[in-house]
Design brief:
single chain; disordered N terminus; disordered C terminus; transmembrane; endoplasmic reticulum; acyltransferase activity
């Protein structure tokens, strides 16, 4: 782990070839494009520093250190060192320059635990690896590209996307856990638990650094900043929206911070579509990426409308049944969208989706229409629509 010096040598120690992605046909292709993401984030952090300096000059007094703010603008050498840092070289996770700098300037690196957090994080990876090998052997993706596959009965074709997505998840779980373990082994991304760090963004509360080794040793740390996957919640959360939040978590923070918030729309669904479009472009130019990513906003819109229209009307027992059905449909939607992500080509993706009669697209459209119809017919909706609109500007300010 880096020491407390911030001289050029401290940065050059951590140089390595830049972040890159495997080829599209590599079995462990994870689509890591961290380098540009790092530089976009760094540019934003530098802009935040300039804005803070201007406010300080305008007010005439210093407010002291701000949470997450850079101390000064990085030099060219520091920028290159950050961009070429070996941590997360293959699969991420994404990290801000502030996180990288805190790692280098950790005052008592020996007090930061790494072995126990690493073992706690790594233990499920061998199991996930075995499950990936087994599922990909029993249900090879190449079978979907063969003509014989489409002679199978409809239930077989529908079922096949489930183990394909299962293998897809297991592969990413292993790779992202391994990437997190690489960070943990280096003490990278460790912050006090009291700082309430979030994946990608880092601390949300100010925590003064310990003044002695003894105090540093008594601090409880975690590695939430570089946490990239929540395997349990990815599989067992109820909603499509929640599943997105638990998958590739550091990059989700980056997309929310730099793409979603700057989208030229106000609607959640349109902002999500804009974000998914740019995310698809980030992955590559294969049509399957765009078909899959741009199905997500339709599912989000259908989910939001139907939940708003129906779930609240159910009894507690009915809501529990609803949540189980919702979870089942969420997983089937991700199975369906995964096929475009792994088949890649326009022809292969549409051929498979057509063989299952575009079931998720049709189901989402029906759910969206039903939700809109029920919400439009609800008494509370009509009552709201009949009220004066003088509160609209206040509502817009709240949003």
């Amino acid at each position: 782990m880096g020491g407390s010096s911030r001289g050029p040598g401290a940065h050059l120690v951590h140089l390595w070839p830049p972040h890159f992605a495997f080829s599209d046909h590599h079995p462990w292709d994870l689509g890591s494009h961290s380098g540009p993401a790092l530089l976009v984030s760094l540019a934003s952090e530098v802009q935040d520093l300039h804005l803070a300096q201007r406010k300080e000059m305008a007010s005439g007094f210093s407010k002291g250190p701000n949470l997450g703010l850079l101390p000064d603008v990085p030099s060219l050498l520091e920028t290159l060192s950050y961009s070429y840092c070996y941590v997360g070289i293959m699969t991420g996770p994404f990290f801000r320059y502030r996180t990288y700098l805190d790692w280098l300037e950790q005052p008592f690196p020996g007090a930061v635990p790494s072995l126990r957090p690493l073992l706690c994080r790594a233990w499920p990876a061998p199991l996930f690896g075995l499950l990936f090998l087994l599922s990909s052997h029993l249900f090879p993706l190449e079978a979907v590209r063969e003509d014989a596959f489409y002679a199978r009965p409809l239930p077989d074709r529908l079922f096949y996307m489930i183990p394909v997505f299962f293998a897809f998840r297991m592969r990413f779980y292993v790779a992202w856990i391994a990437a997190e373990c690489g960070c943990i082994a280096a003490g990278f991304g460790a912050y006090p638990v009291a700082a309430k760090a979030r994946p990608g963004g880092g601390p949300t509360l100010q925590c003064p650094p310990p003044s002695s080794l003894e105090k540093a040793a008594s601090v409880e740390y975690n590695y939430e900043t570089i946490r990239n996957i929540d395997c349990y919640d990815t599989d067992f959360c109820t909603r499509v929206r929640e599943g997105m939040r638990h998958w590739n978590m550091t990059v989700q923070w980056w997309l929310a911070q730099y793409i979603y918030k700057s989208a030229p729309f106000r609607s959640y669904v349109l902002r999500s579509a804009w974000t998914m479009l740019l995310s698809a472009y980030w992955h590559g130019l294969h049509p399957g990426y765009y078909l899959s990513f741009l199905t997500i906003p339709l599912c989000l819109a259908a989910e939001d409308q139907l939940v708003s229209a129906l779930r609240g009307r159910l009894s507690p027992g009915g809501q529990r049944v609803w949540d189980w059905v919702h979870w089942f449909l969420k997983m089937r939607a991700y199975d369906y969208m995964c096929m475009g992500f792994v088949l890649l080509s326009l022809g292969d993706t549409l051929r498979y989706w057509a063989s299952v009669y575009f079931c998720i697209h049709i189901l989402a459209l029906v759910a969206l229409g039903l939700g809109l119809a029920l919400r439009g017919a609800s008494p509370s909706r009509r009552k709201t629509a009949s009220q004066p609109t003088s509160l609209a500007p206040e509502k817009l300010r709240e949003e």
